[in-house]
Amino acid sequence: MVQTFDSSAEAIEAFVRLERAKRRRGYAVMDEKPP
């Protein structure tokens, strides 16, 4: 999916919403790359 935004603030807001939704569904942040 590709989304376009009129400003970087709108893009950041959409990213934050997506991140919150993913975390609610059980996704977790991985800081390390797999070997």
From TrEMBL:
InterPro entries: WGR_domain. GO terms for molecular function: DNA binding. Residues 1-31 form the WGR domain. Keywords: DNA-binding. It holds the Pfam family WGR. This is DNA-binding WGR domain protein. It comes from Bradyrhizobium japonicum.
